Task: inverse folding
C-alpha cells in the first residue's frame, strides 16, 4: 500500500504492515524513497527499514505527528546545531513539573488492599522502620516490580 493510499483511507491494516516484511531490500529502498524523498542510509539493516516504513505508514494514517512533538523536536534540533547537546533532557525537564517534597511529609499508597506509608527524610525515605534511597526503591519493594516512585505515590505531574 502506498503512503498516499494509507493517508486517504485513514487507516493501515495489519496486512499492509505485514506485506512490508515480504518485500526484498531493493523494494524496501523504493518504498523508503517514496516515503521520505531520499534514499535510506547506506548500511541500514532490513529489519530497521521495515520498522521505519511501518511506523511512517501508521503515522501518516493517523494524520501525522502531533504539533507539540514537532515543536519539541525542532527545539531539540536547533539546540543540537547550536552546540547544546543536552537539548532533549532540558526540554523534558522543562515540560515535566519537578515536585519538591519537604522532610517530614507522609505519603500514603493503597496497594492490593494494604495501605503503605512512607516518610520523607532529609536524605532519604523511611518505610517500615528502614531508610531507603528513593521512592522508586520503596515502590519496587512494595510491588515486586520496577516502578517510578513518584508515579507510584501519585506525585508525577503535580505542581510543587
Result:
Amino acid at each position: 500500500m502506498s503512503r498516499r493510499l494509507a493517508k486517504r483511507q485513514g487507516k493501515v491494516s495489519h496486512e499492509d504492515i505485514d506485506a512490508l516484511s515480504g518485500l526484498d531490500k531493493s523494494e524496501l529502498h523504493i518504498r523508503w524513497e517514496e516515503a521520505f524523498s531520499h534514499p535510506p542510509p547506506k548500511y541500514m539493516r532490513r529489519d530497521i527499514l521495515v520498522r521505519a516504513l511501518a511506523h511512517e505508514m501508521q503515522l501518516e494514517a493517523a494524520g501525522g505527528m502531533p504539533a507539540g512533538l514537532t515543536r519539541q523536536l525542532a527545539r531539540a534540533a536547533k539546540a543540537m546545531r547550536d552546540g547544546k547537546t543536552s537539548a532533549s533532557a532540558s526540554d523534558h525537564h522543562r515540560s515535566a513539573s519537578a515536585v519538591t517534597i519537604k522532610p517530614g511529609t507522609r505519603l500514603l499508597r493503597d496497594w492490593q488492599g494494604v495501605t503503605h506509608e512512607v516518610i520523607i527524610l532529609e536524605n532519604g525515605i523511611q518505610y517500615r522502620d528502614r531508610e531507603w534511597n528513593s521512592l522508586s526503591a520503596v515502590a519496587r519493594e512494595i510491588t515486586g516490580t520496577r516502578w517510578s516512585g513518584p508515579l507510584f505515590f501519585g506525585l508525577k505531574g503535580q505542581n510543587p
Q: What stands out?
A: The chain has three domains: 3-61, 66-95, 106-152. Residues 106-152 form one domain.
